[in-house]
What we know:
The protein is of the alpha/beta class. It has 11 helices and 10 strands.
Amino acid sequence: METIKLVNGVEMPLLGYGVFLVPPQEAERCVTDALEVGYRLIDTAQAYYNEEGVGNAIFNSGLKRDEIFITTKVWIANAGETNAAKSIDESLKKLRTDYIDLLLIHQAYGDVFGSWRAMEKAYRDGKVRAIGVSNFQAARFFDFAHYVDVKPMVNQLQCNALIQQTAIEPLLAETCTRMMAWGPLGGQGVDGIVKSPLLAQIGQMHGKSAAQVALRWLTQRGIVAIPKSTHKERMAANLDIFDFTLTPQEMERIATMNEHDTGTVNFSDPQFVKYLIETYG
C-alpha cells in the first residue's frame, strides 16, 4: 500500500474503504471483509450511524491498532466546542479505540470554529493524530484556514475523473493540506466513470478495469481515495491498483474528462444548506 505523509508527519494510506450509506447492521461485516482483503484505512462518520460496526470489525480483526488508519467526522448536530468535544469521546467509545487517526469537520456549517477548538485540544491531548475538514470549498476553506491555529491537514472533497478539483489544489498547497476524494468512482449525480470508453481503453493497456484506472489516476495525483462496495470481490479489485503506473500521456488524457471541477453538490445553495440543517442539524 502506498502512503502519503501529512504535514505533521503522520503517514496515511492512499487508498481506503468508505462506509457512507453502509447500513449499521452491515458495517461490521463489510469492514471485516475490507480488512481481510487488505484495506488499512477505514473512513466513517458520526452521521453514518455505523461507527459501532466499524469499531467492532477493527477490534475483532486481530490486527494491531497501529496497522489501521481510522477516519471519522464531527457532524453538524455536534458543532460547537462543548458538543464537539463530547462527540469526539462518544466516537472513541463507539470505535473501541483510544485515538482517531484523522478527524474531520463533516460540513462547513454551524459553529465550525468552536468544533475546531475542540478538535485542536483533542489533537494536543493525543486523542486524534490529525485533523481536517470535509466539503470546504475554496472560499470557505481559505476563510477558515486563515483564522485557525492548526491548519487543516486534509480536505475531503467530491473528486473523481469527472470532478477533478484542480482549481482548489493551489489553495490547499498554501497550507500543505492534502486532498481526500469521496465518490472516487462516481455517484451523487456523476455517472460514466466505470463505463468510460477512454478509461476502459487505457485499462486494456495495463490489464485493468476502468474503475481501477480511475482510482490509480487519483492516487498518482497524491489524492487519497475511499471507494465503497459491499461486495468483497469488488473491494479486492478496487484495492488492486498499485502494480501499475499510468504514463504522463495517459494522465493527461484522463484530465480531459473533467466536467464539474468543483463538484455536483452546491454547498453554497441556501436551499441545500437549509435542508441539511433542518433535517440533520
